[in-house]
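Good morning N.,

You mentioned wanting to compare the apo and holo forms, so I went ahead and generated the holo version with adenosine-5'-triphosphate. This is what I fed in:
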Amino acid sequence: MSQAPIFPGTASPSGRPATLGVMGGGQLGRMFVHAAQRLGYFTAVLDADPQSPAGLVSHHHIQTGYSDAQGLAQLADVSDAITTEFENVPADALQTLAGTRPVAPGASVVAIAQNRIEEKSHFTACADVSGVTCAPYAVIQTEADLKAVPAALLPGIVKTARMGYDGKGQVRVKNAAELAAAWKDLKQVPCVLEKMMPLKDELSVIVARGWDGAMVGFAPQRNVHVDGILAVTHAYESNLPPELAARAQAATRSIASHIGYVGVLCVEFFVVDDGSAQGGLVVNEMAPRPHNSGHYTMDACDVSQFDLQVHAMTGLPLPAPRQHSPSIMLNLLGDIWFDAQGQSRTPDWQAVLALPGAHLHLYGKTEARRGRKMGHLNITGATLADVKATARRAAELLNLPGLE
Ligand code: ATP
Ligand code: MG
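and this is what came out, ligand included:
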């Protein structure tokens, strides 16, 4: 596939400035919009929420649902190319948009990523080339499936096939009785049961692939989750055994190529304790968009994951990113807006902003809720020791979990 480059500022045939559209108005959309605007593009966001983080900073904000025919027509009308920031946007909506505009990533690959059953089939289909498999699992769609679950998969985690993120739609189960109860609680929607893996570590790899198949990427990040939500990303040279990192990177490239992916893709992996010194690599899931674990690229690399999304979708060249500073990213959840008594408070930004190498990103969300992603703090420094010391200080000041 090829795509004639869409340059910023160029008057399109309709006489308006080149405009990039995005489905979804969350923080990923906002950071995408900022990257697009920095290059001179106009932007359009489709999100029903009048206060959506991306809608608030975009030239156009179309306030309709993702499947609204009029909203989609309006987005296609004002945009020269369209992307998505949310994997649960209905694939049909992307298909409709693709009728008139370049859409990256495409509907069929987003459809795979938004259904864990399809996603696991895809990982299995590329296992020969990628060299990695997913955790042992069973699909549960019927009572018969439930009864047929092998005991070897327990204890495990039941995950809804659709609409899961940040650990939502997941229940940890120890035995068959708990599994049956959990599936009932999940309203008996299609699910997968995954065997609980002995995790040594978690990592993710972010790549960007162009219309012509060219691919660039960042070095793998090591991620720490707390309560199923990303808390800390470690992005520096010694974060992972080099051989493991290289295997994860190669696997991600084959997972992207296998489906002709266009845009930024993140693949998450588990490092499992298999008795070997560095552990075995197991693929967890993929996100068809920039990812929370790649936010450090905004301050620690010369090209961010959002810049690459802009380049990939518009058919611009994909420069290989260079990380110029070791970095640790700390996620800022709504929890830190509450004190120990549950009273709301303002985090001590005064102290945090005084830390050299601390880059604060807040998403413009006015209501803090526990577990809600409100922002992140990227720490950079001349040396890894500096970065670690600053991250520890910031975590202390803000009472953040997950930094060992
Ligand atoms: P997100 O989209 O935010 O990454 P999610 O809701 O899609 O999250 P998963 O990535 O499936 O969820 O799981 C969240 C976390 O739960 C994982 O990062 C890992 O820490 C833990 N987890 C998930 N599956 C397993 C498993 N099979 N064994 C052990 N731990 C697991
Ligand atoms: Mg995940």
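Residues 28 and 85 are 6 Å apart (CA to CA).

Happy to go through it together on a call whenever suits you.

Best,
F.
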